[in-house]
Write a structure and sequence with these properties.
By secondary structure, this protein is mainly alpha-helical. It is built from 2 helices and 2 strands, in the order H-E-E-H. The chain has one domain. It has a two-stranded antiparallel sheet. The longest helix is centred in the first third of the chain and has 26 residues. The N and C termini lie far apart (32 Å). It comes from Portunus trituberculatus.
Length: 69
């Protein structure tokens, strides 16, 4: 137990927080490259003025995420 929280639950929250922080760093890099996205845990909502812009941003993001693993 960690306080009133079971150890496995505390570890889950710690891992989730670290994962979210790492994704936020990559999202900032993507924003600098012109990709506009909203993040929630491991979901990315990419938005842009046109369908073509969304598809281009999606492709850029997918390439980077595959590259970093």
């Amino acid at each position: 137990m960690v306080g009133d929280i079971p150890v496995h639950q505390a570890l889950f929250f710690l891992v989730l927080r670290a994962f979210s922080k790492l994704l936020r760093v990559e999202a900032t890099r993507q924003a600098d490259a012109g990709v506009s996205a909203l993040l929630y845990v491991d979901d990315w909502l990419i938005h842009a003025p046109t369908k073509e812009d969304v598809l281009g941003s999606f492709q850029k993001t997918l390439e980077v995420l595959v590259e970093i693993g």
